[in-house]
Design a protein that fits this description.
By secondary structure, the protein is mostly helical. The protein is built from three helices and no strands. The protein has one domain. This is 12381_t:CDS:1. It comes from Funneliformis mosseae.
Length: 50
Amino acid sequence: MPRNSRSTSIKPLTLPFPPVITIEELLANAVKSKKANVTIPNSFIAYRMA
């Protein structure tokens, strides 16, 4: 059995991962948070880079 047979059998994920986060949800969370200026960019950038 070839060594690289595992890498060829990996299929792309069909489910969204990480879970889809909408801008509306981020804004809704920011309204409840006093650190909105910090939480929105950090969480959004972390989500987009994942």
